[in-house]
Amino acid sequence: MGNRDEFAGSICVVGPGAIGITIAARLSLAGLAPNLVARGESIGFIKRNGIRLFDLEGEHHSQVSVGRAGDFGPQDIVFLCPKSQDMPEMAKDIQPLIADHTMIVPLINGIPWWYFDGEGDRWGGFDITSVDPDHVIKKLIPSRQVIGTTTMIAAERLRVGTARTIHPMHLTIGELDDHPSKRLEDLAGILRRSGIEVRVASRIRDAVWTKVVRNLISNPVTAITGATLGENFGDKHLASISRQMLHEVLPVIAAYGSKLELDPDEILESGRRLGEIKTSMLQDLERGNPLELAAICDAVLELADRRGIDLPIVRAITGIAHFKSRDRRRDVA
């Protein structure tokens, strides 16, 4: 792809949610002219009005090329920014964007469908059925073209085409085989040029588990209680539940040869410092949208069950969150 400051290839962001708008806006500010894949009325709205991002640097307005995947053709880099439960359908929709050289960068929550790929025969071809029950994603998105990621961008979609983030933006990236590569360097350069802090992980699954734990001990709890992150980790009763969930899942992480990148107390304290921010799961619940319980909670339980590890508190909180999700969606309907 050449020098990072000379990149002239095609970049596409798929999904105009909070993360998608944030990434597209930052790429646009760097002069990288991203394409944006959207659906329905969002296409016309963004064509007329562009996209808008409020971040620590202020307000940014960008005009981007927006349409369906078939409007753009094969891309050099594709950022996938869906809710995790939308990945199977998105995998079908984005096929016009993917050529043999396309770098695919999924920015999703939870245990990713690619978790057991890239490590040879170590896991005997395991799949994560909670996130890819019909193997659609794995069939349609070549793992050799995927860059593993974790996203630390606390963004909120305010309305169509508009997002806000009030914290620094961080991404961790890594090859699925944990080896360094030139394409990782190129991607890191593009993201840094766009004002996004990037870390290249030597063990991407450790980064994944660290992010999964952050989500697991906060998202479903706040969906049940309505608490902000500051309240969840500042209230002694809620913080105790989150702490117990964290310690429950540590044997699962170890059973799959990984470890957290941060001390458990540091994870809990970092959640408290985020303050009056609503988790994405709580935001989805309030809007009557499906919750990302499959990738964040069900997949962890699936992996625990495979190793015979009991997670009673995680299982109980997950079950209540599932009920809450169904109940809220009935109310909205």
From TrEMBL:
<protein>
    <recommendedName>
        <fullName>2-dehydropantoate 2-reductase</fullName>
        <ecNumber>1.1.1.169</ecNumber>
    </recommendedName>
</protein>
<dbReference type="GO" id="GO:0015940">
    <property type="term" value="P:pantothenate biosynthetic process"/>
</dbReference>
<feature type="domain" description="Ketopantoate reductase C-terminal">
    <location>
        <begin position="204"/>
        <end position="324"/>
    </location>
</feature>
<dbReference type="InterPro" id="IPR013752">
    <property type="entry name" value="KPA_reductase"/>
</dbReference>
<keyword id="KW-0614">Plasmid</keyword>
<dbReference type="Pfam" id="PF08546">
    <property type="entry name" value="ApbA_C"/>
</dbReference>
<dbReference type="Pfam" id="PF02558">
    <property type="entry name" value="ApbA"/>
</dbReference>
<dbReference type="InterPro" id="IPR051402">
    <property type="entry name" value="KPR-Related"/>
</dbReference>
<dbReference type="InterPro" id="IPR036291">
    <property type="entry name" value="NAD(P)-bd_dom_sf"/>
</dbReference>
<feature type="domain" description="Ketopantoate reductase N-terminal">
    <location>
        <begin position="11"/>
        <end position="177"/>
    </location>
</feature>
<dbReference type="InterPro" id="IPR013328">
    <property type="entry name" value="6PGD_dom2"/>
</dbReference>
<dbReference type="GO" id="GO:0008677">
    <property type="term" value="F:2-dehydropantoate 2-reductase activity"/>
</dbReference>
<dbReference type="GO" id="GO:0005737">
    <property type="term" value="C:cytoplasm"/>
</dbReference>
<comment type="pathway">
    <text>Cofactor biosynthesis; (R)-pantothenate biosynthesis; (R)-pantoate from 3-methyl-2-oxobutanoate: step 2/2.</text>
</comment>
<dbReference type="InterPro" id="IPR013332">
    <property type="entry name" value="KPR_N"/>
</dbReference>
<dbReference type="InterPro" id="IPR008927">
    <property type="entry name" value="6-PGluconate_DH-like_C_sf"/>
</dbReference>
<keyword id="KW-0566">Pantothenate biosynthesis</keyword>
